[in-house]
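> forwarded from #structure-qc
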């Protein structure tokens, strides 16, 4: 890291930075381990260029989401130490390995987060997920909100990019018309992580920590469906403990593909047609349910 960037991090923190070590990164964002002057260890994400397409609101949304999730005092999240358009700095969390007991604790913790709840679907800040804008408009019901803010915007973005066809989007739009009858009993908005795949769960100290949120108020089954999408370790233990703490409405397993429509569409927008079949399969499942 150049000295100007190190000086920028120190200015954002308002604290001396003794050393900076690069530890990788992705999507135009570099990751660093910081040793502060008082011995504190911190983690920093630094955008390589402000015009890299990730949007200047991305770090602000992440910082707001971390603070908002922390309000529930349910799942541990890294504390935000500093943030601006170029960087996000949080406390350092030593990574460990998951185990069955930690997975069960995580299930209980995420149930506590969800049941803590929130006042509305969406969030009061501009959302970002993986560098893409995340609409957070309001709606009276979750099925209406989910279609308008999570499914249809990304289906149309993928169509405009040529990744999905007009017929593909018509299929997804048809699936959205069935959401009100398939969504299960109405529930108040839950406080969710919003991008809860296994890579955004950091195992440390016998707990699962949530990182990199796209946090908002939504249906609690969305986080659980995301954990299942790419395979979380000890998923059965997570779900079993969750069910003991906050039982899900009957038929929740059949609703998993409905909740996976959004993350699959985000992957189509980011990575192209490799995820098209998954999106269409989920949409067909909704239509045939």
């Amino acid at each position: 890291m150049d000295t100007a960037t190190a000086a920028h991090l120190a200015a954002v923190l308002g604290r001396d930075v003794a050393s900076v070590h690069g530890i990788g990164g992705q999507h135009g964002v570099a990751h660093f381990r910081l040793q502060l002057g008082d011995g504190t260890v911190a983690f920093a994400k630094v955008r390589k260029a402000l015009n890299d397409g990730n949007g200047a609101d991305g770090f602000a949304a992440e910082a707001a989401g971390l603070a908002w999730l922390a309000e529930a005092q349910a799942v541990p999240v890294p504390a935000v130490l500093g943030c601006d358009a170029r960087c996000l700095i949080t406390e350092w969390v030593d990574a460990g390995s998951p185990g069955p007991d930690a997975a069960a604790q995580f299930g209980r913790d995420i149930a506590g987060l969800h049941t803590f709840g929130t006042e509305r679907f969406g969030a009061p800040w501009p959302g970002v997920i993986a560098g893409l804008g995340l609409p957070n408009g309001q709606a009276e019901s979750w099925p209406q909100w989910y279609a308008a803010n999570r499914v249809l915007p990304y289906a149309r973005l993928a169509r405009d990019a040529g990744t999905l066809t007009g017929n593909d989007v018509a299929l997804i739009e048809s699936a959205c018309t069935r959401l009100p009858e398939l969504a299960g009993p109405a529930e108040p908005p839950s406080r969710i992580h919003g991008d809860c795949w296994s890579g955004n769960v950091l195992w440390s100290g016998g707990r699962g920590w949530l990182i990199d949120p796209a946090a908002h108020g939504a249906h609690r089954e969305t986080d659980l469906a995301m954990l299942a999408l790419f395979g979380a370790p000890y998923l059965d233990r997570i779900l079993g403990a969750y069910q003991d703490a906050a039982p899900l409405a009957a038929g929740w397993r059949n609703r998993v593909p409905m909740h996976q429509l959004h993350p699959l569409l985000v992957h189509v927008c980011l990575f192209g047609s490799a995820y098209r079949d998954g999106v269409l399969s989920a949409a067909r499942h909704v239509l045939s349910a």
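QC bot note: The longest helix spans residues 142-160. Residues 51-56 have pLDDT under 50 and may be disordered.
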